[in-house]
Amino acid sequence: MKITDITLGMLRVPLKTPFKTALRTVESVEDIVVMLHTDDGHIGYGEAPPTAAITGETHGSIVHAIRHHIAPRLVGEDVADLNRMVGLIQGAMANNSSAKAAVEIAVYDLWGQLHRSPVYALLGGGVPTLTTDITISVNDVATMVTDALAALDEGYTALKIKVGKDTATDVTRVRTIHDAVAGRATLRLDANQGWTAKEAVRVLKELEQAGVALDLIEQPVPAHDLEGMRYITERVNTPVMADESVFAPSDVTEIIRLRAADIINIKLMKAGGITNALRIADIAAAHGMPCMMGCMLESSISVAAAVHVAIARSEVITRIDLDGPSLCAFDPVDGGVHFDGPHIAVGDAPGFGIRNLRGLEAL
């Protein structure tokens, strides 16, 4: 099975409601889709969201990176030599992690098709079901409470609450949601780098003293501030999770060395694809550090890949934040992974099981 052509498309899917964090507000998924075509008629699918505030990538940069740096290296290559394919992708250029991830996901999709097996089975197996949390966007307190209660009605038992706009309001948000859900859901906070270290300690201690038990606080300070992360980790009971601070396996090693966090959030778009995501999980597992599998604002194309990784490394990936498809107004994918509210299920189709995409605009 050899690569003969690489084509790109634009996927636009409106969100059910605007997605609001301390960094940005988004109203629709608008992602670049990559399709790898082979000499025996197979297609491998991958996807990359433009997340300039985190990865530094835009639609234009993703398209340029794939067309002019990554794709020329892959035409004529044999999918069977997975390690070579991954090396060609990762060595094509520096950075551009989402562009690399999209192409690498498509390669793994073809690799699974080549071996007539779901990717998770080739990566180590596991039980092909997961349960995800759901994001509660930053909003006025009443709206966030309404959204939290609606999530409970839909069957979610873990809520990821976006904070980081204003610490006083953040405390009110969390305490009010905590009282409203009355122990019916696990609460996770995500500050998206919106606090200082001292603000984070003050907020978390206030919440802890008020009896608000949190599963974790995600990336409370800027990504580069590992000392600030360690300052928080040493002073609060709430587990601290590193997200934007972790792109590469070396970042995990440094966080472990500094004892700067308790949990690692793995995202394919930060890691540059599946291979580095697996390495991150394995390093964390070797040091007894649990992980979450997360996603950017992505459709069920690339989230399917994250699901397969999470299943294959379920012994260390103990938390799931793969709600991107559930936030979308519709699923543009035929086949693939099945998302039903908090429940995620994988069939036995080869690769990632994607048969067709609807509404894709050619680029």
Descriptive overview:
- With 363 residues, this protein is of the alpha/beta class.
- The chain has two domains: 3-116, Enolase-like, domain 1; 121-357, Alpha-Beta Barrel (TIM Barrel).
- 39% of the residues lie in helices and 24% in strands.
- The chain has helices at 59-74, 82-90, 97-114, 119-122, 141-153, 167-181, 197-209, 226-233, 249-258, 268-271, 274-286, 300-312, 324-327; strands at residues 3-20, 25-38, 43-48, 129-131, 134-136, 158-162, 186-190, 216-218, 240-242, 263-266, 291-294, 317-321, 333-335, 338-340, 343-345, 354-357, 361-362.
- The strands form four sheets. It has an eight-stranded parallel beta sheet. Strands 3-2-1-17 form a four-stranded antiparallel beta sheet. Strands 4-15-14 form a three-stranded antiparallel beta sheet, covered by helices on one side.
- Strand 1 (3-20) and strand 2 (25-38) form a beta hairpin.
- Helix 2 packs antiparallel against helix 3, helix 7 runs parallel beside helix 8 and helix 9 runs parallel beside helix 11.
- It is globular.
